[in-house]
Amino acid sequence: MITHEEDKIDYLSTLFVGIDIGSRTNVISALNFDQDFLIRMVPVANAQGGAEQMEEMVAQVLSQHHEFKAVIIGLESTGFYGVHIANYLSTSEKLAPFSTKVYCLNPNEVKQYKKSFNSLDKNDGIDSFVIADFARVGRIHTEPWRGAQYLALQRLTRHRLHITECIAREKTYMLNNIFLKFSEFAMLKKDEHPFSDKYGATAEAVLTDYLSTEDIVDASVDELVAFISSKSRGRIADPEQTTYLLQKAAQDSYRLDQCLYEPLTVSIGCSFNCISAFEKELKAINAAIQRAVKGLNPTEYQILTSVPGIGPVYASGILAELGTIKCFKSNDALAKYCGIVWKENQSGEFEAEDTPMNKAGNRYLRYYMIEAAGSVIQHCPEYKAFYDKKFAEVRTHQHKRALALTSRKLIRMLFGLLANGKLYSVEKSR
Question: What is the separation of C-alpha 153 from the centre of its chain, rounded to a whole number of angstroms?
């Protein structure tokens, strides 16, 4: 992490480069510590030739100004358009002697910093100057670009999140159709529902093999018991009770015109097929993640997996976004980068029960931290007790709040373990 006060001498001898990323054209600017332009908003193609041109421009400035000992290059993290240039410049042999670091910056932070300038000319390349100046004043609070091996792991862990979001979205969409066809099946709470998993194989069979709720109501108890036992492969301990709950839910559900049942059944079956395909791909991605993480930062990987509940996939997801704990000076800095911090909501003697999370950080790291916390809760009594305590403190958003606060507690513990190079133990976690 860059800290202006601690590295002032380095800043005086550092060249600050800002790159405004576009789909076809990038704009580059370079400043010294006194804010003098050494490269002034030069457009180059967002292609291999353009990357080489930028490399040569920066190298030429360094050869002409011998006071520079280091180079900091900043560019906005705008989707995938900046990936190639970040990877190219971070591995440049010409720039390597100057300890070149490339940073992908949060566009919102750069946008807010831009507002601090009272009078900026309207210019398509002005953002390259703003980014360079953002680095010059020591506002960067992320880790530098880490190269192709981390990028390979990151592509897998981020795609895994994409797949889990697709599964969640498909389940939500399917639940709308389930409500239309079988309203009580969609609305019943866990302790009242016939099945512990609304999206399991037995639930799928009931929703797709029986065309309407009337068919379920009219079926004999013996027929339904045999059907449920067969589809669950004997895993449902009390099929008679499940049959009773299923028929009661069917009786209490809304009735539809007969012309609606078949289209809804086809749609629900299609959604189940999509979910099944996504879950198959999720297993393949998990296996690929475990292969990709081997040999990559083995010490920190071993520390993360020593925590009960954090397996290879969650550890890989955290490492892919974290890089190394050396990039962060404190657990607060790490929490801020995750976006697991809260905005104060207080006035006078009033303090709101709801304090929204500030989600300006890395959403991928936040996802894996929160998922890891949910798993740790299931394996560590201390974290389960902390979660239960926070759950009971409020009346709204209980689970989300308790899980987020538990995630913040986990960050403190993980930072301590990683910073000190220690494996998890119950005593150290406390």
Answer: 14
